[in-house]
Specification:
Order of helices and strands: HHEHHEEEEEEH
CATH topology: Alpha-D-Glucose-1,6-Bisphosphate, Chain A, domain 4
CATH class: Alpha Beta
Shape: globular
Structural class: alpha+beta
Strand content: 25-35%
Length: 231
C-alpha cells in the first residue's frame, strides 16, 4: 500500500521544512544534553579555573562524572593523559582508526606522574595541548591552537596567520567526602574566521561528546578499580 502522492512542486519545500524541523530539534533538545552531559546547573553556569585560557569562547562544553574514589585515587590518571603516555581512556580503536596512536593504560605509571606547567600533553602525532594550569589533585588546565589548514597544534597564544581554533581544556577535581570525587571537564573554543564555526560545530560537538563521555567513564572505571573499562 503506497503512501499519499506528493506533488513534485511541494517536495522541495517539504524537504526544507523537514530539515529545518530536524535542525531545531537538535538545537533545542539534543544539543544541550551533549554540551552539558553529567553536569549540574551550577557546574555548567559557573566559572571554573582555567576559563582564562580561552577568555571569550564561541563554544563551551561542561561535562562531569561522580567517582567513588578519593581525589588522590583519581588525580594520577589525569596526570598521565596523552598519546604515547597513559592514553585518553576513550575508544582507542576509534582514535587509532584516525591514526592517533593512542593506547589507554590500565594502571598508574609512576614515570608519567611528573607533569608541570609548560609540558605538552600529546593528543596526536601532530602535537598536543600545553599545560597552562596545574594544582595538584585539583586542577589540570590545557591550552593550544589548532591550525585548520594543517591540523597541527601549537602552544596557546602562538597564533596562526590562517584559519585556526583556540582550545582550552580544563579538568577540575573536587572531593565529595573522603571516598568520592567529582570530576568536571570543560572545553572552550574560539575560532577564526567566524565562518569556520559553521563547519566545525555540527561536526565537532557530537564527536567530542562521544569521545569525552567515554573518557570520563573510563577514568571513573579505572579509579574505582572496575575490571571492564570499555564495556
Amino acid at each position: 500500500m503506497s503512501g499519499p502522492h506528493i506533488p513534485a512542486r511541494l517536495r522541495g519545500p517539504l524537504a526544507a521544512l523537514a530539515a529545518a524541523a530536524a535542525g531545531a530539534a537538535y538545537v533545542l533538545a539534543v544539543r544541550p544534553r551533549l554540551l552539558l552531559w553529567g553536569a549540574t546547573t551550577q557546574e555548567a553556569a559557573g566559572p571554573l579555573a582555567g576559563d582564562e585560557i580561552v577568555p571569550a569562547p564561541r563554544m563551551q562544553t561542561t561535562r562531569a562524572v561522580t567517582i567513588a574514589a578519593p581525589v588522590s585515587g583519581v588525580w594520577p590518571w589525569l596526570v598521565q593523559l596523552g598519546a604515547g603516555r597513559g592514553g585518553m581512556y576513550s575508544y582507542d580503536w576509534l582514535e587509532n582508526a584516525a591514526g592517533l596512536g593512542i593506547h589507554s593504560a590500565d594502571r598508574i605509571r609512576p614515570e608519567l606522574q611528573h607533569l608541570k606547567v609548560g609540558d605538552t600533553v600529546p593528543l596526536s602525532p601532530d602535537g598536543g595541548l600545553t599545560v597552562r594550569l596545574l594544582q595538584s589533585e585539583a586542577v589540570l588546565g590545557l591550552g593550544g591552537t589548532i591550525d585548520l589548514r594543517t591540523g597541527t597544534m601549537s602552544p596557546a597564544g602562538v597564533l596562526s596567520a590562517g584559519p585556526r581554533v583556540d582550545v582550552g581544556w580544563t579538568f577540575v577535581l573536587r572531593p565529595m567526602g573522603s571516598q568520592a570525587a567529582r570530576l568536571v571537564s570543560r572545553t572552550r573554543y574560539d575560532y577564526s574566521p567566524l565562518a569556520a564555526g559553521l563547519v566545525l560545530r555540527p561536526l565537532l560537538e557530537p564527536v567530542q561528546f562521544l569521545m569525552e563521555r567515554r573518557m570520563l567513564l573510563g577514568i571513573r572505571d579505572r579509579a574505582e578499580g572496575r575490571r571492564s573499562h570499555g564495556a
